[in-house]
């Protein structure tokens, strides 16, 4: 036992491609947001950006949208971000541009029969993704749930003491990497999109901090970065990726990316490696010999809030 305190999909379905963005400058994005939201709503929505931009370089603010960057421009952006990490955090980091693996759609599943609420996944996510140490942020919440329901609203993250409790089960929730992601649909500047391997990503240099995506997510899986993250130099994870675990700027919304800086390099998510009970299963659903494919074909799986039609790439099952 552990003492802790824890804060149906078609296997052959293909994902949305990257958004087609032509001549989409930062100025055009902000102008488009103004037209979409209206004057009053726009001013309220981007107020966090005005504070954040005080500390932003001109190069960062005027940077072209990620999908429009040339290879040479990307190299310059990555070099600038690595230099900023050294200046602001005294950390030597390498920031890559990890792209999807052809013929891959990543899917996650959790065996709720063996998850015991120990919270090791939460801790691993916190460290792997360079979260703010002061707020103990993580992309994962573990809900202590009364047995007999999958209604998230009946769970709590503020449980403590010895786990597991006899009348409870434990429900880890993170980004569901939906095939129909409402968070993507509401973004007024196209700062977030779904990639070919099923991962929903954010261009943190393009996000204006309006938080529409955070409000649209029915799984409460997005986090707003209210202040500059505090991460000691010796705790910074130096293996980073532009669309993943690089230290996010103030005033943007961030999210789980299935640790794409690991999974697109053939490794497993940090939360899975940290799980002591073996509750987590991850893999490529397009591979007929994968463990994840076997589980979805042979287990009775559950989807959170299936009635909303978001088509998650995240599943739950019991033995």
TrEMBL record:
It comes from the Bacteria. One of its GO terms (molecular function) is metal ion binding. Keywords: 4Fe-4S, Iron, Iron-sulfur, Metal-binding. InterPro entries: 4Fe4S_Fe-S-bd, 4Fe4S_Fe_S_CS, ET_IronSulfur_Cluster-Binding, TAT_signal. Residues 1-20 are annotated as: Disordered. Residues 1-10 have a biased composition (Polar residues). Residues 198-227 form the 4Fe-4S ferredoxin-type domain. Gene3D superfamilies: 3.30.70.20. PANTHER family: PROTEIN NRFC, PROTEIN NRFC HOMOLOG. This is 4Fe-4S dicluster domain-containing protein.
